[in-house]
Amino acid sequence: MNGWIIYNGALKFKKFHLLVESLVAESKKKGIQLEAIPNSELLPMFHSDGTQGLKSLRSLNEPDFIIFWDKDIYLAKHLEAMGYRLFNRRVAIENCDHKAYMHLQMAQDTIRVPKTIVGPFTFHQHELSGEYIDYIFEELGSEVILKEVFGSFGMQVYKFNNKEDLIHKMKELDGRDFILQEPIKSSFGRDIRVTIIGNQVIGGMKREFATDFRANITLGGRGELVELTEEQEKLALKAHRSLGLDFSGVDLLFDEDDRPIVCEVNSNVNYLSFEQVSGVNVSRLLLDYIVGEMP
Ligand SMILES: Nc1ncnc2c1ncn2[C@@H]1O[C@H](COP(=O)(O)OP(=O)(O)O)[C@@H](O)[C@H]1O
Ligand SMILES: [Mg+2]
């Protein structure tokens, strides 16, 4: 069996490459030939006879499946139109990547999330009215969380306790889309990352960060394996299914009664930290799942 794993050629994070390497190594053990290909080495193409195709900078075997470890939505669409099966599917990646689309999809299945308002589409710097800003604080509370719709590792997630700073940030975004969200104070500095493959919960990792409301490991959060409650498992699975994912990492917050609320769902999930704390070989489970899905 031949497979490709497509990753982003521009991102130089070590964590990304380690994950790709781990999948390639596990594939070898299973007798699968998995080619690691940066998206920048593939050329989606339209020929002059009206057909579509794909060229690559090096010679590649025809894949039976593609692990799409990138957010190059155009490339994903192009490959699906050519008939390739992508893990995850393009629609799931596209919805997870965009925090407003993700909420829109989850609302179709009435999944519990923090109260969220989607910012208006603007052109470049556009100062929203004082009325708009007042309304945001009235609706969401004395503190407000702003998230750029495209963001990872908690790096595009900000918290504000006054109008001036929020207005300043909105200007700084210069037209980049955002959502505004109620802060779940009982969950500041802690959340749970649930790893799911197929429709099976693999496990949960509690993440804690003493000095920041964001619990992301990349920012400095500490991970610890936890036994998930039935309610946490159910909610995480519901979100995973709603978004149509093959594999995912669902982030759960804790409400005042420690009951779960979905923070976000990640399609391009880096499960290396979970592997470290759990000892579970997620790469192997993922490949087993993919093989099982093949006709
Ligand atoms: N509404 C919220 N209330 C409390 N904490 C939050 C809220 N939203 C996000 N967080 C914290 O910030 C972290 C990053 O937010 P998240 O939406 O997951 O963005 P990213 O995609 O960058 O990881 C979460 O893991 C959580 O710890
Ligand atoms: Mg997150």
UniProtKB/TrEMBL annotation:
Name the keywords, alphabetized: ATP-binding, Ligase, Metal-binding, Nucleotide-binding, Ribonucleoprotein, Ribosomal protein
Mention one GO molecular function: ATP binding
GO cellular component annotations, sorted alphabetically?
cytoplasm; ribosome
* Cited InterPro entries: ATP-grasp, ATP-grasp_RimK-type, Rp_bS6_RimK/Lys_biosynth_LsyX
Q: So which domain of life are we looking at?
A: Bacteria
Q: Which residues form the ATP-grasp domain?
A: 103-291
- Entries under NCBIfam families matching the protein: rimK_fam
Annotated protein name in UniProt = Ribosomal protein S6--L-glutamate ligase
The organism encoding this protein is: Piscibacillus halophilus
